[in-house]
């Protein structure tokens, strides 16, 4: 069965590259764009439920613009959905990504100058020049220490996840301003140059290899039905969770017992990444 979350098809159009597109739909090639707001909700339907989020500068392919909504597919994980057309901007050559938990764009190369907007971890910008402590970008001036060149990756997914400690829990969230369990894992892995799908079920099915029970190593993934966490060490994990309503560190065994006691079942998989 085709997964609607990663198949660019709706009631009117289908991506031209699909080999089994339903008959009667217009086949379209799609056009390149980037997210042009700090955070955009990726919705299941216009004005519908949020599935995921996209942050500034993420590349997308737009397959339809209709009634103020853009039907698109995200480059990072092939997730499909709708965003307001006003959330998009023309393609630009991104050179850097926000590797700090979050940052501000300033109107001048001075931390006392007015800030123009905030950006989450993972946002992509185009550097226009350097001014020492700041890089001038297409959005203004950003502290240089908050940016990394595209292609420069972090080395430890668990350390990236720790950057999000205290971030509010948000169902379907993918930013420092609000994130859920699979969003945290995806942010951690993508920052390390590791492909990662958007939802915990996909992550359980597609990431890593099964590890020995309770042989916990930093960077392992623990899965429950509808939930995922990153192992920090032999005793603790880090996850975005609705119990704390935040990204938090928790003893592994306490988390396992609590999650089962609240009715969400036992650990369904323990995976180790290459």
UniProtKB/TrEMBL annotation:
<dbReference type="InterPro" id="IPR051794">
    <property type="entry name" value="PG_Endopeptidase_C40"/>
</dbReference>
<dbReference type="InterPro" id="IPR000064">
    <property type="entry name" value="NLP_P60_dom"/>
</dbReference>
<dbReference type="Pfam" id="PF00877">
    <property type="entry name" value="NLPC_P60"/>
</dbReference>
<dbReference type="GO" id="GO:0008234">
    <property type="term" value="F:cysteine-type peptidase activity"/>
</dbReference>
<keyword id="KW-0378">Hydrolase</keyword>
<protein>
    <recommendedName>
        <fullName>NlpC/P60 domain-containing protein</fullName>
    </recommendedName>
</protein>
<dbReference type="InterPro" id="IPR041382">
    <property type="entry name" value="SH3_16"/>
</dbReference>
<dbReference type="GO" id="GO:0006508">
    <property type="term" value="P:proteolysis"/>
</dbReference>
<dbReference type="Pfam" id="PF18348">
    <property type="entry name" value="SH3_16"/>
</dbReference>
<keyword id="KW-0788">Thiol protease</keyword>
<dbReference type="InterPro" id="IPR038765">
    <property type="entry name" value="Papain-like_cys_pep_sf"/>
</dbReference>
<comment type="similarity">
    <text>Belongs to the peptidase C40 family.</text>
</comment>
<keyword id="KW-0645">Protease</keyword>
<feature type="domain" description="NlpC/P60">
    <location>
        <begin position="151"/>
        <end position="274"/>
    </location>
</feature>
């Amino acid at each position: 069965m085709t997964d609607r979350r990663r198949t660019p098809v709706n009631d009117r159009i289908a991506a031209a590259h699909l080999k089994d597109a339903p008959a009667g739909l217009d086949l379209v090639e799609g056009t390149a764009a980037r997210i042009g707001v700090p955070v955009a909700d990726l919705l299941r339907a216009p004005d519908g439920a949020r599935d995921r989020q996209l942050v500034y500068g993420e590349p997308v392919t737009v397959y339809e613009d209709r009634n103020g909504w853009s039907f698109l597919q995200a480059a990072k994980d092939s997730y499909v959905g709708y965003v307001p057309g006003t959330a998009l901007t023309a393609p630009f050559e991104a050179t850097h990504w926000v590797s700090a938990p979050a940052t501000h764009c300033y109107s001048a190369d001075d931390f006392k100058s007015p800030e123009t907007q905030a950006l989450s971890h993972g946002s992509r910008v185009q550097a226009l020049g350097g001014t020492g402590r700041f890089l001038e970008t297409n959005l203004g001036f950003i502290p240089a220490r908050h940016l990394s060149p595209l292609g420069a990756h972090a080395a430890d997914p668990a350390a990236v996840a720790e950057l999000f400690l205290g971030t509010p829990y948000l169902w379907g969230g993918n930013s420092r301003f609000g994130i859920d369990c699979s969003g945290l894992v995806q942010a951690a892995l993508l920052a390390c140059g590791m492909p990662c799908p958007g939802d915990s079920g996909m992550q359980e099915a597609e990431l890593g290899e099964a590890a020995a029970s309770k042989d916990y190593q930093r960077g392992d993934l623990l899965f429950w039905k509808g939930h995922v966490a990153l192992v920090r060490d032999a005793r603790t994990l880090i996850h975005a969770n609705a119990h704390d309503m935040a990204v938090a560190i928790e003893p592994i065994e306490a988390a396992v017992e609590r999650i089962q006691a609240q009715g969400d079942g036992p650990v369904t998989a323990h995976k180790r990444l290459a």
